Amino acid sequence: MKKWRRGILMLPALMLWIFPLTALGADDEITRRSLKGLKGIFVSVEHIEPGVEKDGLTRKKIRAAVTKRLREAGINVLSKEKWFDEEGSPFLYVNADILKLKTTSEYVYCIQIALKQDVYPVRLPVNIHGAATWVPGGLLGITFNLDKIQRSILDQVDRFVNTYHAVNP
Questions:
Q1: pTM, two decimal places
Q2: CA–CA distance from 26 to each of 32, 43, 132, 139, 154 (Å)?
Q3: Would you tell me which of 42, 87, 121, 138 could form a disulfide with 21, CB atoms 3.0–4.6 Å apart?
Q4: Among the residues of 96-137, which ranges form H helices?
Q5: 117 part of a folded domain
Q6: CATH number for 30
Q7: Count of domains in the chain?
């Protein structure tokens, strides 16, 4: 009976894993153009649960892997100091919500990346800080392996890299 209930509870997560959260994304011709002309970006990684960090997947580790991937692709990664000076203050926002299930020690995760930058609406003379201008959708999964989660994050970063190079040949 316990396995049956667990299966029912995990069904929504499994459905989202099979059918990624693309409906929540904005990756089209217009949003891709928001990457054009970027001279560099900062990498911002959202908070990781302490239990997950204790198991070995830390914000620092994710940021280092993302930074390395971007630099290998020829994309300039800005320090926090230089980021403030960059027009539009663009940053790649990495959000990995990871929950470790106590009963099975599995990790349920949702990964979302976005390019965020300052924007100025035409109708208002106001600066909107950190507006998401490119969001390719999300990825949800279940695994026992934290390395798989890091690979999934880097797969999303590769989407950014490919889009960046498509608009910045």
A1: 0.83
A2: 9, 19, 9, 14, 19
A3: 138
A4: none
A5: yes
A6: 3.30.160
A7: 1
